[in-house]
Amino acid sequence: MAVCYKKLWKMLIDKDMIKKDLRLQTGFSTTTMSKLSKDENVSMDVLEKICSVLNCDVGDIMEFVPGKKEEP
């Protein structure tokens, strides 16, 4: 099972934000944003910070995709 952050990118569009806006508001590094863009695993702290900034729940920004294998 792999993680997918398409919901996060759709939410940013709905809120008229770009990835840079999210990075600046959360204080994330470009590396963390790159991991999100590539649907890679990030820490729970990262997800919590995103939810806090966007005022949403984890399920609103990500989902697990069955059948899709994670890259090592």
UniProtKB/TrEMBL annotation:
CDD domains linked: HTH_XRE (cd00093)
PANTHER family to which the protein is assigned, alphabetical: DNA-BINDING PROTEIN, DNA-BINDING PROTEIN-RELATED
GO molecular function annotation: DNA binding
Pfam families noted in UniProt: HTH_26
Full protein name: XRE family transcriptional regulator
Domain HTH cro/C1-type residue range list: 41-61
Organism from which the protein derives: Schaedlerella arabinosiphila
